[in-house]
């Protein structure tokens, strides 16, 4: 059974720092890995999607890497800003679930960037 | 552009009462549709997904049900709510491109959610 773990559960940093959020998954047979952002009381916004054949994806100040063999992904946020404060969720599309397009989510990392 | 709407935004219901949450998608045809629940401090759990009208697969216990009466409408229901049904319910959609590589790599787009509290 696929399990997704995110470390740390919470993170508080001063503005301007570069930071790394970690995600690990137990079964390397995935189709893709996705990073989402969730603001308090809101839905999820898709940030980056890394296909199983890819090693990384970049969007602006965000860079996500994927190492399938070790079951790990990192989300790198450069020059953090207070507007980056949110919960970041990692999810894998599990290739061996009962149905396709079934995302398995981690519990998230709650990020606070203070001025 | 595509948009997704969920309502109500918040709901407080007594134990044993019925439930109906609605989700509609605009600007796309034949989307894949999903219902998730997010319990406090836990990751999102997929409840149901649908690849077409009246085509729904379930991932969870039977206290909840889902229906898709129209192409872009997805409804989450219960006949009798339990305390354990409290949580944040999210609807999502993705482009339907089959079960190949292209279909599997379509991102999911989420609504703003419904906060459900059971008293």
Descriptive notes:
The complex is a heterodimer of chains A (115) and B (119). Helices cover 0% and strands 58% of the residues of chain A. Chain A is built from no helices and eleven strands. Chain A has strands at residues 4-7, 10-14, 19-25, 30-38, 44-51, 56-59, 62-67, 72-77, 86-94, 103-105, 109-114. In chain A, strand 9 and strand 10 form a beta hairpin. Chain A is globular. The mean pLDDT of chain A is 92. The mean pLDDT of chain B is 90. With 119 residues, chain B is mostly beta strands. In chain B, strands 2, 4, 5, 6, 9, 10 and 11 form a seven-stranded mixed beta sheet that branches. In chain B, 3% of the residues lie in helices and 54% in strands. The interface between A and B is medium-sized, with 27 and 30 residues.
Key phrases:
heterodimer, A: 115 residues, mainly beta, six-stranded mixed beta sheet, five-stranded antiparallel beta sheet, 11 strands, 58% strand, globular, B: 119 residues, seven-stranded mixed beta sheet, 54% strand
Helix content of chain A: under 10%
- Fraction in beta strands of chain B: over 45%
Oligomeric state of this protein:
heterodimer
Order of helices and strands of chain A: EEEEEEEEEEE
Largest interface comes to: A-B, 27 and 30 residues
- Label the overall shape of chain B: globular
Percentage of residues in strands of chain A:
over 45%
**How far apart, in Å, are the first and last alpha carbons of chain A?**
41 Å
- The count of DSSP E runs of length 2 or more, i.e. the number of strands of chain A, is 11
Give the H and E element order of chain B: EEEEEEEEEHEE
What is the number of helical segments of chain A per DSSP (H or I, 4+ residues)? 0
Largest sheet of chain A: 6 strands, mixed
Arithmetic mean pLDDT of chain B: 90
Based on helices, strands and strand pairing, what is the structural class of chain B? mainly beta
Number of helices of chain B: 1
Radius of gyration of chain A: 14 Å
């Amino acid at each position: 059974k696929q399990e997704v773990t995110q470390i740390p559960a919470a993170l508080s940093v001063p503005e301007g720092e570069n930071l790394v959020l970690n995600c690990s998954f137990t079964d390397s047979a995935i189709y893709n890995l996705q990073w989402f952002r969730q603001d308090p009381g809101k839905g999820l916004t898709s940030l980056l999607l890394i296909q199983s054949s890819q090693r990384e994806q970049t969007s602006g100040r965000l860079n996500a890497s994927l190492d399938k063999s070790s079951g790990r992904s990192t989300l790198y946020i450069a020059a953090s800003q207070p507007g980056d404060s949110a919960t970041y969720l990692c999810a894998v599309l599990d290739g061996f679930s009962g149905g396709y397009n079934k995302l398995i989510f981690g519990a998230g990392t709650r990020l606070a960037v203070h001025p | 552009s595509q948009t997704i709407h969920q309502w109500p935004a918040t709901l407080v219901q007594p134990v044993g009462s019925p439930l109906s949450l609605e989700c509609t998608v605009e600007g796309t045809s034949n989307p894949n549709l999903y219902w998730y629940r997010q319990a406090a401090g836990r990751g999102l759990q997929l409840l149901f997904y649908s690849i077409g009208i009246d085509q729904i697969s379930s991932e969870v216990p039977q206290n909840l049900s889902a229906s898709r009466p129209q192409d872009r409408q997805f409804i989450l229901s219960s006949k009798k709510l339990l305390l354990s049904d409290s949580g944040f319910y999210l609807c999502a959609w993705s482009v339907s491109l089959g079960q190949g590589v292209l279909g599997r790599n379509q991102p999911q787009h989420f609504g703003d959610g419904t906060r459900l509290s059971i008293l």
